[in-house]
Every structure is written in C-alpha cells, then in structure tokens.
Amino acid sequence: MSTTTRALDEQLLEALAGQAITDIGAALNGALVMIGDHLGLWQAMTDGAPTNPTMLAERTGVPSAYLHEWMAAQAASGYLEYDEASDMFTLSPEQAMVFADANSPAYMVGGYHIVSSVYRDYPRIATAMKEGHGFGWHEHDPELFLGTEQFFRPGYRTSLTTEWIPAMDGMEEKLRHGAKVADVGCGHGASSTLMASAYPASTFHGFDYHESSIIRAVQAAEEEGVSGNTEFAVARAKDFPGTDYDLICFFDCLHDMGDPLGALEHARAALADDGAVLLVEPFAKDRLAENMNPIGRVFYAASTVICTPSSLSQEVATGLGAQAGEARLHEIATAAGFTRFRRATETPVNLILELRP
To answer: Which pairing describes strands 245-251 and 271-282: parallel, antiparallel, or unpaired?
Structure first.
C-alpha cells in the first residue's frame, strides 16, 4: 500500500511548537495559581493598589525572592498587570474576580484543582485506558472533588435560582410555595444548598453514590444553615428513593453515568405527574467540528480523563462524554419516556434543558 507524505511546513512546525510552549507555561503556572490561593497572595492584592515583592512580603510573610518570581510569572501569564516604569504589579478588578473572589461568577481556581487531580491520577488512568476498563469517580484523588465544587459553585450561585429555574415553566412558583426536589449526583451539595436557601418552603434530597461527597454535603448544609429542609443519602441515579418529586435535577453529571438512559428512566418514574427534570450539561454543539474551540478543548480533555472513565467503570458503560450535544441528549430523554424537551436557557459553558413527561 502506498502512502503520501507531504513536505514539512516550517511555519506550521514553528506555530505548533509555539503552542506547545504556551501550553507548558500554562500547565506550570497552574500550580502557581493554586500556591497563590493557598498562601493568600491573590487576596493580599485585592485592594488594587500597585505593589512589589517587598511590599507583598510584608503583607503575607512570604519571602520576597519567591514573590518576585511568582509575580513575574503571573504578569507573563496576563494574570497580573506590570508597569515597567514603576516596577510595580497590580491585580486588576477583572483579575481579582477570576483568582481572588471565590463568590465571583468568573472564579476559576477550582478548575486548576481539577487539573491538579488529573496529574496526580494520570498513571492509573493511562493503565485503565490501555487495559480497556473504567476509572470510577471514587478512585480519583480527593483534589478532584474539591476542584469540582469550587469550579461549578460560582456558576450555580450566579445563575441557578436567578436564571435557570425561572426559565422553567412554572417551576419557581412551585418551589416558593413548597415542592419536593431531588438533586441526583449532588456531589458536595453546592446546588442543593443554594436551592434550599433560596426556596425555604421546599425540601431538597441530595443523592450521590460517593459516600465521602455525601458526608461533605451534610456538613455544607449545616454551614449554610439549611439542614432543616435538606437531606442527603448515598444512592445511585438508577435507584434513588422517593416518588412524586416536583423537580429532579442532574447538574453536570448525567454524562458521567454508566447508564444515562436508565437514570432518566428512573427519574421519569419518580416524578409527580406535573413534575420536570432540570438537566444541566456542558455546552456543546451537535457536530464535532463545531466544538473545536477553547470550551470544547477543556471539556473533551476532561471527558477523556474524568467523565468517560467514570462511565466505563459502571454497568452499561455508555461513555456518553462531556460533549454529547443537545440532539444526543434529546434522543436519550425521548427513549426514557419524556415527551417534552426544550432548551430553557444556556450559558457559555452549560446547556440548561427542561424535560417533561
């Protein structure tokens, strides 16, 4: 069989090598972002005043020799502003929202913890890939669970009760008067506690197969003062207890499940006659070529090392992937017995879908 090899394009090679250098720098600096958070460096600069390593050392107790290199790395990354004339660094309001304010909708530090967990786990994930078996959520380094909560909480805090639920037909009114809600795959309970705080007349039941996450969810509910209208239990998506739910939620988790069809079939059976499913999934177009962008890059990468291995570790092992797209999700929902399916709203990173019997 003959093959044809095109001539080497030096410009393409240079561009590709340059992209690799950019990505190596980003990978290295990810650790520095987390170090800055751990040592309080970002928070020490939130006043927006120009500062230098000596001044920051006085505020934080970290030696200025370290801070000079750390601040230079952040400026080279575009994460701090640097003024050569004064030799001073500044954390802009926009940079503070991304790196210093955990309640900001743009807070990204949790994403770096997710990346950190992948680097810790990658030898075992590579073995799972080579041997053709899954790698369960519970098998990951705990850094993943921390990062997932931190990464998704800002978006939920910003949009869940202010945009997503109001976009569902009549659901906010039900929740205000008192409804029964299941949060399937609730993880550390960030979504459950946010809803419980916003809708105190309703009751929220969080379910996750990962026991350590459920323990953390219970603690979070106590910290947020919503223990009175929340409860959490270890349960799978295909057999969580209870019936007549007014709302059943799947937040960024259906694609991680081995049997997403079975999970939606169980949800359909557990709903009240006029209930609904709120399905929140990573934003994706239906064609692969349409997802060749920074968001698609993040989610395809995460899907390779987190989402798909999780699915393949469970029964059925569908391997839906984090970029399934609306058409594929519609197909599964229809097969599960839902007759109404619509995109209630969207964000740059999520599809917010409403399913009705």
So the answer is: parallel
**Edge-to-edge strands of the sheet including 350-356?**
230-234, 203-208, 180-184, 245-251, 271-282, 350-356, 340-346
Residues of the chain with CATH 1.10.10.10: 19-99
**Tokens standing for 78?**
């575009």
Fold of 19-99: Arc Repressor Mutant, subunit A (1.10.10)
Per-residue pLDDT of the chain (357 residues; tens, 9 = 90+): 556 688 999 999 999 999 999 999 999 999 999 999 999 999 999 999 999 999 999 999 999 999 999 999 999 999 999 999 999 999 999 999 999 999 899 999 999 999 999 999 999 999 999 999 999 999 999 999 999 999 999 999 999 999 999 999 999 999 999 999 999 999 999 999 999 999 999 999 999 999 999 999 999 999 999 999 999 999 999 999 999 999 999 999 999 999 999 999 999 999 999 999 999 999 999 999 999 999 999 999 999 999 999 999 999 999 999 999 999 999 999 999 999 999 999 999 999 999 999
Nearest of 120, 118, 98 to residue 109 by alpha carbon: 98
Query: Which ranges in the chain are annotated with CATH 3.40.50.150?
Result: 155-356
Radius of gyration of the chain (CA): 23
Q: 155-356 maps to which CATH number?
A: 3.40.50.150
